[in-house]
Amino acid sequence: MGKTTGFLDYEREDNPAITPENRIKNFNEFHTPISVEERRKQGARCMNCGVPFCQSAVAFGKGPAVTGCPLHNLIPEWNDEVYHDEWDYAAKRLLKTNNFPEFTGRVCPALCEKACTCGMNDDPVTVHENELAIIETAFKNGYVEPRIPKVRSGKRVAVIGSGPSGLAAADCLNQRGHYVTVFEREDHPGGLLMYGIPNMKLEKSVIDRRLSIMKKEGIEFRCNCNVGADIPAEDILSEYDAVILACGAKQPRGLGVGEEKVKNVYYAVDFLTDTTKALIRNKYDMPAFLADRKKITAHNKRVVIVGGGDTGNDCVGTCIREGCRSVTQLEMMPKPPETRLPNNPWPEWPNVLKTDYGQQESIAVFGKDPRVYQTTIKELNTDARGNLKSITTVKLEFKKNPKGGRPIPTPVEGSEKTIGCNLLLIAAGFVGCQSYTAEAFGVDLTPRNVVATDAGKYKTSKDKVFTAGDMHRGQSLVVWAITEGRECAMAVDEYLMGYSFMR
């Protein structure tokens, strides 16, 4: 490293955020970059630790969680280039392992920073923001240009779904020289990047910028194409040499309290999609957007959100921007510890309590954190027309599972509480893929309702059909989707050519 003592000489400095009171006036991204000189100091904090756990994706605990980057980004290398003001070389090292750092640099929870050795006794390196600074500098200075393959293989690949895994697979296979067509059932490519992540976390112009490059490189996008419903799978199989199913895990988890019969109850993904479409339709003009909100709106509503994860937080921030009267976020699990515990050592500090942007905005507007822990909905109460008017909640306690495994959440008798609510958003996660596309192609599904493959593989039970992303692994992170898209592309390349030098 160029600055051996950088982690001792410089303190961590994050990109400053616009205050909650001001940023809720629009749906714009709200972090402003620090100066180039200060960013170089942040790159210098990378401490030449010898064992870069940040890029290792090491599993910890009994579950599937990992610490470190699943893409195995070459983090110490491009941090060093940032320190030396070599932004073009930094971009080359970054793009070697990550197709879309402009996405992960905005929405990834930064597993790399959780594994940073500097975080053992001090603040970790600002890996996430360094990554974003590198790719945005690369776009600004013209380092990112269309790379049109000089030789084509003659092989044709269909990618069903244009989320991060589908886009990554398409990008890799196109660069290999195959002809790639991406099918998307929505009116715009991007999948969850486009309609599942709010604009204040990922402005849609960032997606369009990347899509423009991919189109110039030769990738064909076909929108409003619902393969398996409007387009027969047989047509795709007969026309293409290989098919990748990358449709995501979009089957939302319900509450089981008859919510499907009650008006003004929506799944979070539908609410966020409707919000983004209205913003685009009104060219991000807030007065026009608010006036156009006819289907689903939080304006002047008492909102309850079920789910304490990222999507629930995104709903909190969106509802506040729409002018909700109040917002409550119900979380079934216990409240995490506010500091790292002695028995919860580095690098497991992702398990401590965090206050995300939506909760920060609720504190600023309503004077309190919207989260209520160990609580779920027992009953929905309606008026004579079936409109939601209130909910009855119940506290939970976790009892030992006699069969082993996770403790069982059990309602606490006498803890019921009724609160006013005329908009309920369900952000309780997903239970696998919407199976009609998988069934149309005749591939097997697992008990978790994701497409089955051999462990660590991407080929399905159907000849020349592969799968990647959440449709393959279940609900996960954008960084994992890109990782799976890249690895699936290599498997497809080997299938088509008999070998592959993708790495």
Please tell me about this protein's structure:
With 503 residues, this protein is α/β, with parallel strands linked by helices. Helix content is 34%, strand content 15%. It has helices at 6-9, 20-23, 36-44, 75-83, 87-97, 101-107, 111-114, 127-140, 164-176, 192-195, 204-216, 233-239, 268-281, 286-292, 310-322, 357-366, 436-441, 470-473, 478-497; strands spanning 58-59, 66-67, 156-160, 179-183, 220-222, 242-245, 265-267, 302-306, 326-331, 371-373, 375-382, 388-399, 408-411, 417-420, 423-426, 465-467. The strands form four sheets. Strands 5-4-3-6-16 form a five-stranded parallel beta sheet, sandwiched between helices. Helix 15 packs parallel to helix 16 (357-366). The longest helix is centred in the last third of the chain and has 20 residues, at 478-497. The two termini are 25 Å apart.
